[in-house]
Structures are given as C-alpha cells and as structure tokens.
C-alpha cells in the first residue's frame, strides 16, 4: 500500500492550500535514477505480456523521465547559452501553472490511500468536501485542456521548418502530458476520497440503516482516506491575517515542517 500525505490549510481568505508532502529521501532517490534507454523500454513492452493500456503507461513514464532529465540538463547549462535561455523561458512559463494542477499530478495511480492533515480549527467534513471538489473539478478541466492540447500538436509541429528550436511544439507536448497526468490524478483522488471508500467508523456513524451495514462488502470497509487533525498546524494559523493571509515566513515554516514546495504553496494566495 502506498499512502499520499496531503496537507490542507487556509493561506489567504477563502483560498486553501492543498499540497502533497514529499519526503526529501524520495526526491533524492528520483533524481539519482539513471536515464532510461530505448532498449530497456523495448524489453519492457515486448516481454511483460501486459495489455495495451499498461504498455501505454510504461511508454508515457519512459518519455516523462526523458523529459525530466533533459529539463535538468538545460538548467545546468552555462549562463548566457541558448540552453540556459530556453530554461529561463521554461521557468517563466511553469510559474503560470496553477498549483492545483501540480497537486493533482502528484497523486499517481499506485496511491492506495490518502492521509489528510489539517488544522484542528477546520471542520473535517468541510476539508474532505473541498478535497472532493478539487478532484471533481480537476477531472473536468484537465480532460478539456488535454484534448485541446492534443489538437494543437499538429499545428505546433509545423513550426519545425523554422531554423530555431521548436519551443511551441515542446511546450504543447509538455502541457498535453501535464494535463493527462493531472486528469489521471484527479480521477484517482476522487475515487479515494469519495463516499464509497469510507472507513468502518465513518460508515457506522453516517449510515441510518443497520441492516445495510451488515451487507457491506469487506473491500468497502478498507480505509482509503484518513483525517488527521493537527494542533501543531493550527498553531501556525494564529498569525493568519484576514486580508493578507499567512506571511511568507510562516508559509516557509509550514513547508519546512511538512516537506512542501514553498513556491508552489505560495501560488495558492492568488489561486481561486
């Protein structure tokens, strides 16, 4: 079983932050993985005997890793070089990506349960309801944008005739992949936090029919989401200003304590 720890807290006004906690050791292990080779990909898709949809997943992950390695290489290019300038342009474009998309992309298909950490001052039902809303809204929006990005790929591919790097095509390709990942994550999250995946305690409390409880299948009683009210997180909210929200210093402390990306969390200030 693979659990995803989701941190939830208000950051400014009605804007709440939803971010997955990623341990530093996991980040380091991902960055040290060697770049995959095409021969390894060929072996995986020809010898595993898996159906087509699973082979598509393998191919997608392969090119995703390739893109991440190439992006890291651009960031390490000498300052002032063409590669370094392309990386700078990419950073500016990525800064416009909504934080909710980054969050949904972090919920991979192998996540089996969600641990939701939130301040004790928040209503747990409201926390779960807003998490479901983000998942449902994401499934609608990113499906729409995914098909839109796919339709733009042939047009941007035509820019290859120009004697310059085809940035529009690669950006559209990245956005297509990003929307696809966010769509997969939103659908997975919606399943995990929906009413059909409640714990035994929640089912006994919410159900009005005792006979219905007796006929619940064992799989329906598996806790796929768990609420963790945090007094420590609630202490950070003592400095919450109704107009300006949490200060950047407080946000930085929360991110350090719960292993969150400070830049992505700060985006929630202006995100609706």
From TrEMBL:
Which GO cellular component term is one of those annotated? Answer: mitochondrial inner membrane
InterPro entries reported for this sequence: Mit_KHE1
Any one GO biological process: potassium ion transport
Q: What is this protein called?
A: Uncharacterized protein
Task: Please name the source species.
Answer: Papaver atlanticum
